[in-house]
Write a structure and sequence with these properties.
about 350 residues; 5-stranded mixed β-sheet
């Protein structure tokens, strides 16, 4: 459904809904609950000119001048006039982009409706999958408290980091049923279940690395201190699900010799005995980790399961960060990769 190279099939899927969803023939009685979205997410995929055209169509009001588009501008809910209930998920936004490239005269509202239909038929977990959606941090606390679970630890943690939880809940559709909590769990278990859910859901709901990077940027903007650890964990799980599901096996190495500490790689290719480390960073990787990995390779250190690794692969979230860390390649059997944008995501070696 997301293969934009198949123009004939994609074109027909777009045409199929024209009669009922074009602006001049719409008969929509739903309550108008406008939804904001970020212009820069569109900009990353289809460029300024196409984004401007799409947004201008979306924000026009009868008898009024349309608002001016600016790159990176947040389109506030008072600007979007189409009847859109709830927020727009990452995957749906990407499908809207694909539709727009093929049908430039389709309105935003029409493209949104068709995108929802197309994405649902492709079995992606997106907005509209059903269930009680958690709207913000207060709603999260209230819903879990209403279930009767022990919130002694989770409540103050969510409250302390409310900006981060609010951002995640705005960016993603997290349902009450996504939270594996029960009344039999202790306070610590409930807190762990909540945080684990927020670590896992980006890998289930976000399909492209450009969308993940935008999501991570929003988290960092909300709360830099905690979000740095969050996005690292979330990126590891995103890579596990969307890029390297066969590398989920981890290898651990006890501290020895000149190693600064014990080490655990993020992924391991058992067919080549190569270690992988996934980095969502803005600068250089930790040199102590790099030195320890080099020690492991040079001295043929065995993992706790008896495996001797043959190489180290560092995977970064984008080309710019990979190039910044290209110096890693000067070390023997070290390789540097990045995740290429688009569907499906692909690893590219530099």
């Amino acid at each position: 459904m997301f293969d934009s190279s198949n123009k004939a099939n994609s074109k027909s899927s777009v045409k199929a809904g024209h009669d009922s969803i074009y602006a001049n023939g719409e008969k929509d009685s739903e309550a108008s609950i406008p939804s904001p979205f970020y212009a820069n997410r569109l900009q990353q995929t289809i460029g300024n000119k196409a984004v401007g055209q799409l947004l201008q169509r979306a924000i026009k009001k009868p008898g009024k001048k349309s608002e001016t588009y600016a790159p990176g501008k947040r389109i506030a809910e008072h600007i979007i006039t189409a009847n859109i209930t709830g927020s727009i998920s990452q995957v749906v936004m990407e499908e809207i982009q694909r539709i727009h490239l093929e049908e430039e005269d389709m309105t935003f509202k029409a493209a949104h409706k068709l995108a929802i239909k197309n994405v649902k038929s492709s079995n992606k977990r997106v907005t509209g999958r059903g269930g009680t959606r958690i709207t913000d941090s207060n709603d999260l606390i209230n819903q879990l408290t209403g279930m009767g679970v022990n919130m002694t630890k989770a409540d103050p943690y969510i409250t302390k980091h409310s900006a981060l939880f609010d951002t995640s809940l705005t960016e993603m559709e997290i349902l009450l049923t996504d939270l594996p909590v029960t009344t039999a769990q202790s306070a610590d278990q409930v807190k762990t279940a909540v945080t684990d859910t927020f670590m896992e859901m980006p890998s289930q709901l976000i399909r492209t690395v450009s969308s993940f990077n935008s999501f991570a940027d929003a988290e960092v903007a909300a709360e830099k201190s905690v979000s740095s650890a969050w996005k690292g964990n979330q990126f590891e799980q995103w890579v596990d699900v969307n890029l390297f599901p066969a590398y989920k096996q981890r290898q651990s190495f006890a501290q020895q010799g000149t190693m600064k500490k014990s080490r655990d790689c993020d992924g391991f290719d058992s067919s080549t005995d190569e270690m992988w480390d996934y980095k969502h960073v803005s600068g250089l990787v930790d040199v102590d980790q790099v030195d320890d990995y080099e020690y492991i390779l040079k001295n043929k250190v065995k993992s706790t399961t008896g495996v001797v690794p043959t190489a180290v692969n560092y995977l970064f979230q984008d080309l710019v960060t990979a190039q910044l860390n290209a110096g890693l390649k000067t070390r023997k059997n070290f390789r540097v990769w990045y995740v290429q944008s688009g569907l499906p995501p692909q690893p590219v070696q530099i």
